Amino acid sequence: MRRVHVIVSGQVQGVGYRYTARMIAREARVTGWVRNRPDGTVEAEIEGPGDAVDEMLAWMAEGPPGSRVDAARVTEVEPIGGQGFDVRDTA
User: What pLDDT was estimated at residue 44?
Assistant: First the structure.
């Protein structure tokens, strides 16, 4: 099991990034959450089998149509065994 913390920068707010991320996360069968940050970035934590996390990270580096991802900073964190994937309120 692998868990990562991700900060995505670029044009990633107001383009459906979080809600599309939730859909992709459910398809990839990963757990975690995603939210907007006041600085214009999107923050997420993703947990699941390594290949599923990699699949989600690949999508996050591209984003949905209408977005522009400049960078995705990924940090490994300790797995917590979460359930589901939530869109959270802004940090």
Answer: 98
